[in-house]
């Protein structure tokens, strides 16, 4: 009987993992289980080009299932896991695996008190969500409230302004994305949104919701009121791990993995993408998650390869994180781990006359950088960042031991 690898999650990470297994010559069964009805699609387009109508739904799809040699089961969420039996549970079936790749991603965080489920109160996480938002916009030309000042909220606000919609953006901090981009770039981004016509309600709390068939009424804590066509709730996300409760895997803001992507305590389970929390030894030994497109691609390929090789024969996964956002026509590019920095410095662009890059520094070394509409300079300084933080040859012995024994807190 041939071996079977099950991939839980049919999004980008699941797709790239399946492709990598076949590239490496795995000739057993590959079964991909996806909760959504579609194969992987270009998720960043949901808050940008798909929302504005610049691309169609078909344009966002990343592959034809027939192009990848796997059994694709869409609309089939995994409900539980029994790792001691090597079985994943579906609604009405048990499926044995010889190897498992967890790639279930994240799900939107729900806002307490918000009438989630109302057709005019939406999130933006799936194709269906963006289509629901387009439907709500078509039914009322009035202003749109966006709750959340993270990347999704800011991108949706930008896209809505491109569509000539009136936008009110609610956020908790005094400036947009300052916790991620730093206070200087946060202030610059706040001014950009204001200049492009976004009404900012920073530090404003919603006291009462008044949903109606054709609009949503919002009452602020200070007594003011606002009527909007619809509300986009973008208050973050949480790892999609509810199906793993009771499986006795280490769960702590995601599935905890060792440096090789193997789930701590297991040699037959790896995790990849938004759901995985692992130590990137290029920067530090503390496990963390990366909710970004490129990491889903790179980590899923590494996880698939390391699943086949086994924990002892696998290299550590040590990328230089890179991601970007586009808002009001400006591309914001981030590389490395700016959150580790204790100071910032301006880095000269290698191309005269172009913008400098903001470098993030710790103990005299570059740990991250952010560029604004400066792709060539970002490439140049990302290479320097990688040079200053070379990938370690292998995990330190104490981390290898911890990985193989599963001796971590909460396990």
List keywords for this structure.
Enolase-like, domain 1, 411 residues, 5-stranded parallel β-sheet, FAD/NAD(P)-binding domain, alpha/beta, FAD-oxidoreductase/Apoptosis, single chain
Please characterize this protein's 3D structure.
By secondary structure, the protein is α/β, with parallel strands linked by helices. The protein has three domains: 2-105 and 236-307, FAD/NAD(P)-binding domain (3-Layer(bba) Sandwich); 109-234, 3-Layer(bba) Sandwich (FAD/NAD(P)-binding domain); 328-386, Enolase-like, domain 1 (2-Layer Sandwich). 25% of the residues lie in helices and 27% in strands. It has helices spanning 12-23, 49-52, 57-60, 127-138, 151-162, 178-181, 183-195, 293-309, 375-388, 397-405; strands spanning 4-8, 29-33, 71-73, 80-82, 87-89, 94-96, 99-102, 106-108, 121-122, 144-147, 167-171, 199-202, 206-211, 216-220, 225-228, 230-233, 237-239, 255-256, 269-271, 276-279, 287-288, 322-327, 330-336, 343-347, 357-362, 365-372. Helix 1 packs parallel to helix 8 (293-309). The two termini are 33 Å apart. Residues 397-411 have low confidence and may be disordered. One of its GO terms (molecular function) is oxidoreductase activity, acting on NAD(P)H. It comes from Amycolatopsis mediterranei (strain S699) (Nocardia mediterranei). Its cofactor is FAD. Residues 323-389 form the Reductase C-terminal domain.
């Amino acid at each position: 009987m041939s071996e079977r690898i099950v991939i839980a999650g049919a999004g980008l990470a699941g797709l790239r993992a399946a492709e990598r297994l076949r590239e490496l010559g795995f000739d057993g069964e590959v079964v991909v289980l996806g909760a959504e009805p579609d194969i992987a699609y270009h998720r960043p387009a949901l808050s940008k080009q798909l929302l504005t109508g610049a691309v169609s739904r078909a344009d966002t799809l990343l592959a034809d299932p027939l192009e990848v040699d796997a059994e694709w089961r869409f609309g089939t969420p995994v409900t539980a896991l029994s790792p001691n039996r090597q079985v994943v549970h579906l609604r009405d079936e048990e499926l044995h695996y010889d190897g498992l790749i967890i790639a279930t991603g994240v799900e939107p965080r729900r806002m307490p008190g918000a009438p989630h489920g109302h057709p005019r109160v939406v999130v933006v996480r799936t194709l269906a969500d963006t289509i629901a938002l387009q439907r709500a916009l078509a039914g009322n030309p009035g202003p749109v409230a966006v709750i959340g000042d993270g990347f999704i909220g800011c991108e949706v606000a930008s896209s809505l302004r491109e569509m000539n919609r009136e936008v009110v953006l609610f956020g908790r901090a005094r400036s947009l994305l300052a916790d991620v981009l730093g206070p200087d770039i946060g202030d610059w981004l706040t001014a950009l949104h204001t200049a492009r016509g976004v009404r900012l309600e920073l530090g404003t709390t919603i006291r009462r919701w008044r949903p109606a068939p054709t609009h949503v009424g919002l009452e602020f804590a200070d007594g003011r009121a606002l009527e909007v066509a619809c509300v986009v709730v973008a208050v973050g996300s949480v790892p999609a791990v509810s199906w793993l409760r009771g499986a006795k895997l280490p769960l702590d803001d995601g599935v905890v993995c060792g440096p090789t992507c193997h789930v701590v305590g297991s040699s037959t389970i790896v995790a990849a993408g938004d759901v995985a929390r692992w130590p990137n030894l290029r920067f530090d030994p503390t496990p963390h998650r990366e909710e970004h497109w490129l990491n889903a691609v790179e980590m899923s390929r590494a996880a698939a390869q390391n699943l086949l090789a086994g924990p002892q024969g696998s290299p550590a996964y040590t990328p230089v994180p890179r991601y970007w956002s586009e808002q009001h026509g400006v591309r914001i590019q981030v590389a490395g781990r700016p959150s580790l920095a204790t100071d910032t410095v301006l880095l000269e662009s290698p191309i005269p006359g172009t913008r400098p890059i903001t470098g993030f520094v710790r103990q005299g070394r570059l740990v991250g950088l952010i560029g604004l509409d400066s792709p060539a300079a970002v490439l140049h300084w990302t290479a320097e960042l990688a040079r200053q933080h070379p990938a370690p040859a292998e995990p330190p012995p104490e981390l290898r031991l911890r990985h193989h024994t599963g001796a971590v807190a909460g396990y």
